[in-house]
Amino acid sequence: MGSRENGGPIIALSGGVGGAKLAVGLSRLDLGERLLVVANVGDDFEHLGLTICPDLDSNTYALAGLNDEEKGWGRADEGWRFMDAVGEMGGENWFNLGDRDLALHVLRTQALAAGGSLSNVTATITKQLGIKAKLVPMTDDPVRTMVQTADGALAFQHYFVRDRCEPVVTGFEFKGIATAMPQADFMATLADPHLQAIIVTPSNPFVSIDPILSLTGMREAIAAAKAPVIAVSPIVAGLAIKGPAAKMMAELGMPSTALAVAEYYGGLLDGFVLDHGDQDQADAVASLGIEPLVTKTVMQSLDDRANLARDILAFAESCRG
Ligand code: FO1
Asked: Ligand 1 pocket, 96 CB below 6 A?
């Protein structure tokens, strides 16, 4: 890291695929434990008697280099004999648990049943997998995203996997959010006077980032933090790189543009990172009072991820001024 870095902690708010890719990019800058990745837990659910935490797991597998790049979730080099047997016996098989992935769900469920917290079991697993960054859930309390549609509310995984994101969304509810306590290390790091940056990764604003921002006292803690807040657009040239963000924006009556995402986050942000494909929206972002940075945000290679991470930290330093 260049001399310009103040050596303080860096927080990345992360959901699934897009967030995990940038978390990997940041982790390749040798930040060690200075990097705190905070994962959304609104996607979590109980399934086949197991506690499933998809966004924690996407970040865990990506940071450990074990993730399946094609699917965007679960592990690479996976087997499906467990699921074949579940199907044979008439069990629920709409949500695919790989044979290796299953170990994580079983061990986490066992640890939680023994009274452990989600933070503790996440720390144990990430340490076992040799992950240097600190990965924590946004809260240790249960929060469950419900997707509201014209035909009623759907549990997140029913919307996302079982119904393949086809229902038209009208809104979202984060069940449990009012009583969920923000994770302790997360809140302590937000209050750290040496905090270098708070990065809103290019995850889905509605179902990955909003659950984190909706925690009690979170927006106030971010506003009071001594670090610039930088968001990376999850929309490039009108399309989400992965997932239903653009479709949700259209269904919520928003233009599915990078600028609309900047407007959606609004006053929370000091800086907003757009891809070259959205260069023409940079001035409009600036007119919101948000500093724009135009760079390559589409992360195909590992180098792309590290380069974007480096650009963001340099951008954060300039925003700090
Ligand atoms: N996403 C799917 O589209 N199909 C699946 O069968 C599926 C299984 C699955 C198992 C474990 C896990 O951690 C994630 C899984 N996901 C699956 C992704 C999951 O739906 C996430 O919520 C999304 O990645 C959105 O964050």
From this structure: yes
What pLDDT sits at residue 240?
Answer: 87
Ligand 1: centre distance to CA 145 (Å): 14
Residue 280, CB half-sphere, CA atoms under 13 Å: how many?
A: 5
User: Counting atoms of ligand 1 from 1, which one is nearest the CA of 243?
Assistant: 25
Neighbouring C-alpha atoms within 13 Å toward the C-beta of 1: 21
pLDDT exceeds cutoff 60 at 197: yes
Distance CA 309, CA 278 (A): 19
Distance from the alpha carbon of residue 173 to the mean position of ligand 1, in angstroms: 20
Burial letters 220-253, b for 16+ CB under 10 A, else e:
ebbeebebbbbbbbbbbeeebbebbbbbbbebbe
Please provide the average confidence, as pLDDT, over all residues in the chain.
96
Domains of the chain with bracketed CATH? 10-320 (3.40.50.10680)
| pLDDT band with cut points at 50, 70 and 90 for residue 2 | very low
Q: What are phi and psi of 46, to 5 degrees?
A: -95, 130
pTM over 0.85? The answer is: yes
CA 118–ligand 1 middle distance (angstroms): 19
Overall average pLDDT of the 285-296 stretch: 98
